[in-house]
Specification:
heterodimer, A: alpha/beta, Rossmann fold, 9-stranded mixed β-sheet, 5-stranded parallel β-sheet, 8 helices, 18 strands, elongated, B: alpha/beta, 2 domains, two-stranded antiparallel sheet, 6 helices, 13 strands, 29% strand, binds flavin-adenine dinucleotide, binds adenosine monophosphate
Chain lengths: 320, 258
């Protein structure tokens, strides 16, 4: 069996779980396993019916009062009980922040580790080979897993498409699981006060990364932004250093934007940045390193020093 | 208040990476090295926590080659009190469970109140060493911590975790506990000259270990450059100025976005 984790908040599905179903169905096609979904919940949950509409064998609702809100301790206890009962060959999840928080713990409880954030897999003569991105996106690694299952595998968002999850009809089974007292007490999730700039409405964005080198150099990018009528944005390290406020940050922990034109200056293109800008219309990358992963996304690229390119760009724009 | 901080040495971010002959990792023989980014923030948070308490000890622990001593020296110069260096020849041949297990075996007896790690290594990027370690030490953990309420630490600690797309959540943890620290949690201090001098007298314990084989590990079969999926037009042929001229023309006439 391949056991898929279904993530939700108060019964509202996290859509990447559908990508995980698609991944599990694919793997099942290679291994001949059946697929089951696992939903931790504090009480009966309507989401189970929705998930039962996919081509899987069954939906297991692991029920306990203590699972009403997420804690890593609670989820690990619940999941471990289901794994012991079902003895799956693979446990498949979408690599979300919540999964990062508990999946390695769960795997360790079985004396295993997670093969995390995979971007694809292939079947090589019956052996599944998983591909992970390493060195901040500069290299890929093909990995195999030794020993007996359960194998714990998580996939990066977008590795599989949610609309490829095959529809069908599954049985729903509710299991009252035992959960110890969590050693952590969650408060309500919240959003910080609204960002003062809304980059989601920007038509043109000039984004700077660590390649800008120093706070003083930001004016180089600002001049370009002014010539283009663009807004300034940044990768995480720029905001971490407080060179620009956090509401300028693009990426998985910042804003998600899709301007007509996105110009990345000295940004390497780590996945956590890319998820925030990959749907931009035209993408330009200026980077000294010809192997920087941002070039795989760019429509136009200049391999070179941004401090040489940007002043010339400004001149050319001003020529009209 | 005793705090252990895990710190790893990784290839410099701007280093040109060459793949090793056996294609199973990079050739790091002449690659410049640095401290893993989030681990620097983990150390800073540990130092600030100790300072807020007005007492305590910050112990740095790294597992790696002899060259990882530079990570330790830098941490001691910035204010850590002592260090444990678990010496292995090639930590990149080890899987995260093995690394966590070797670290757990060598820090368990310290009975620390808090263990801080970075949230992810910039080379292997497993994002799980800290979480496995917490399970092996049988202590609770929180990942992607972006704020620690230092006033709150008293048998328990309140931490703010980053969730996706701009959401956050506070959790209260009993100590001992393990926190994986997100970059940007605070501003990292530089080592002072006084700190660098003081570091020379601080204790660094070297531990030689032979890491047990791990029968459930992941094994890297092959490392390679990502396959290109998009046709990018590279402009200027290495001349940034010529590229800039071409680029503006293309943005006007071809992409029609200017
Ligand atoms: C859970 C998690 C969440 C994260 N969230 C985010 C997020 O929301 N947003 C985000 O951006 N990151 C995020 N990150 C961090 C992300 O993984 C990368 O570390 C970060 O995006 C790298 O920023 P960078 O490209 O500016 O820096 P680097 O990766 O250091 O790249 C700098 C680039 O500049 C180039 N360069 C240097 N000098 C020049 C020059 N003179 N001219 C031209 N090019 C030059 C270099 O070749 C290099 O490619 C997150 C990470 C984690 C683990
Ligand atoms: N060899 C190591 N020595 C010390 N700390 C490590 C080592 N490997 C990983 N860590 C810690 O675990 C964190 C997560 O690493 P990883 O699981 O590889 O992404 C890092 O940020 C470090 O704090």
């Amino acid at each position: 069996m391949i056991l898929v984790f279904i993530e939700h908040k108060d019964g509202v599905l996290n859509k990447t779980s559908l990508e995980a179903i698609a991944a599990a169905q694919n793997i099942a096609g290679d291994t001949g396993d059946s697929v089951a979904a696992m939903i931790p919940a504090g009480s009966d949950i309507g989401l189970a019916q929705e998930i039962a509409g996919y081509d899987i064998e069954k939906v297991i609702v692991a029920k306990n009062d203590k699972l009403g809100t997420y804690t890593p301790d609670g989820y690990t206890d619940a999941f471990a009980e289901i794994i012991r009962k079902e003895n799956p060959n693979y446990v498949v999840m979408a690599h979300t922040y919540q999964v990062r928080d508990f999946c390695p713990k769960l795997a360790a409880r079985f004396g295993k580790e997670m093969v995390g954030d995979c971007i694809r897999y292939s079947n090589e003569g019956g052996q599944l080979v998983f591909t992970r991105r390493i060195f901040l996106g500069k290299l890929d690694a093909d990995v195999t897993i030794k020993g007996e299952g359960p194998y714990f595998v998580t996939f990066q968002s977008g590795a599989f498409r949610a609309d490829n999850a095959a529809a069908g009809s599954a049985a729903v089974e509710t299991v009252d699981v035992e959960v110890g007292d969590p050693r952590m007490v969650p408060e309500e999730p919240f959003q910080e006060a609204k960002a003062s700039v809304d980059l989601t409405k920007s038509e043109v964005i000039v984004a700077i990364g660590r390649g800008i080198k120093s706070e003083e150099n930001i004016k180089v990018a600002e001049e370009l932004a002014e010539a283009l009528g663009a807004d300034i944005a940044a990768s995480r390290p720029i905001c971490d250093s407080e060179w620009l406020p956090i509401d300028r940050q693009i990426g998985s922990s910042g804003q998600t934007v899709a301007p007509k034109l996105y110009i990345a200056l000295g940004i390497s293109g780590a996945i956590q940045h890319i998820v925030g800008m990959k749907n931009s219309g035209t993408i330009v990358a200026i980077n000294k390193d010809s192997e920087a992963p941002i070039f795989d996304l760019a429509d136009y690229g200049i391999v070179g020093d941004l401090f040489e390119a940007v002043p010339t760009m400004i001149e050319e724009i001003q020529k009209g | 208040m005793k705090i252990i901080v895990l710190m790893k040495q990784v290839a410099n971010k701007d280093a040109v990476l060459r793949i090793r002959g056996d294609e199973r990792w990079i050739d790091d023989s002449d690659v410049s090295q640095q401290t893993n980014e989030s681990d620097g923030y983990a150390l800073e948070e540990a130092l600030r926590t100790k300072e807020a308490k007005g007492e305590g000890e910050v112990i740095v622990c790294t597992l790696g080659k002899p060259s990882a001593k530079t990570v330790i020296k830098d941490a001691l110069a910035r204010g850590a009190d002592r260090a444990i260096h678990i010496l292995v020849e090639d930590e990149n041949a080890l899987s995260p469970y093995q690394i966590s297990k070797a670290i757990a075996d060598n820090i368990r007896e310290e009975n620390a109140d808090l263990v801080f790690t970075g949230l992810q290594s910039d080379d292997a990027s497993h994002g799980q060493t800290g979480v496995i370690l917490a399970e092996l030490l049988d202590i609770p953990h929180a990942t992607i911590v972006i704020e620690v309420d230092r006033e709150s630490i008293n048998g328990s600690v309140r931490v703010k975790r980053e969730l996706e797309s701009g959401w956050y959540q506070w959790f209260e943890y009993k100590t001992p506990s393990l926190l994986t620290i997100q970059s940007g949690i605070s501003q990292i201090r530089y080592a002072s000259l006084k700190g660098i001098m003081a570091a020379k007298k601080k204790e660094v314990r070297d531990v030689e270990v032979s890491v047990e084989d791990f029968e459930s590990g992941q094994v890297v079969q092959k490392v390679y450059m990502p396959l290109k999926t998009k046709q990018t037009q590279i402009l200027g042929d290495g001349d940034a100025k010529a590229g800039a001229v071409e680029l503006i023309a293309k943005l006007k006439d071809e992409a029609r976005v200017l």
